[in-house]
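Fold it.
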Amino acid sequence: LEKRMWLRHSSCPGRCDGMRPNLAPRMVGLVSTTPALNAREMTARRFYSGGDDTYRVAHVVIGGGVVGLSVAARLGQAAPTLILEKNAAIGEEVSSRNSEVIHAGLYYPSESLKTKLCIRGRHMLVDRCKARGIPWSNVGKWVIAANSSEVEYIQAIHDKARTLGVPTRFLSSDQHQEEPNVKAHAVLLSSSTGIVDSHALMQDLEGAILSAPHENSIIPHTKVVSIEKRGDQGYMVEAVSGEGESAEKCVIHADTVVNCAGLYADRIAEMILKDKMPESYRQYYCKGSYFAYTGKSLVKHLIYPVPEKNLKGLGVHVTLDLAGHMRFGPDAFYIDKPAGDPWAVPDYSVNEFQLDEAHKAIIKYQAFFFLFFIISFFSLSSFCFVIIFFVIIFFFHYLYEMK
């Protein structure tokens, strides 16, 4: 089993259901086609007339993940827009560490903004994928009750979905055979849940930004260090481009600043709000592990269990990517922010002990995990697992011959 990571955050204490992070088959960020400008080159380019040391632009978007790219793609159609990205390429963090699921909008309260945006956003995303040739698939999702006590939960989801206009339906016992490797007491099908190639989506958004009629730019290797509001004159954004001795400061005068900084969005908010920053804006990092199955996929749909009470997320589920790879996860546990450098990348390493807990969750609804159980229970290396596998095969062959 390969081990892959995702990380999600929340803007509210005690919660981890904020931005849903993304795991993709390619765990590296996209290489931006935008030249990496330094501070001196930035001040030399003209969007509007500005001071000698000030870069003038209509909009600054902080963060080059999928949210920042989406915002800039829209704003850049109307006026010059600049994306400031602290990493070497776009989409290197949350946008590259999630399950790439296009959710239907089943889980959050009916009247919440999350639900409304999820339902509307799904339609907009699918329309964009169809129009621009972005790879996606409407694979559907099974929400399963492992026993009779969990049926009430998926019945409540079904009832809510009907009021929201989201298509769901219960499957008959015969239809359960569509997934012979899944054991379930009851199954609710979400037929509008899909998956998308997040990297292709970000490349498309990047292309839309750079091909817009206005002079838009994506500036990598650039961290924002301060933001000052200048009354009705907009914002003065100070940024540092580059690292170490070669780092250069620049000042950007923007009419609008949009905070899309992902895991660092609370730091950006504090630069603007200062001592008026609400405590509820603080982010608390919740880390999870995905375990990738290296063999051929054993399911055709996304498989989601009923979450346990007081669980931080939606539980350990099965997701697919467009290449047909299957993975299990995530678990979820809170971690401290990295000490020292406030812009440091969180620890994405996977601990072996997490495999045991993942196994306990998976075998509740997966019928094919005797071998997975051997790995997690004994914490064996791949080599030892192969040996035991062949010993088991030989044993059953021996019994057969004895007959």
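The CA atoms of residues 81 and 190 lie 38 Å apart.
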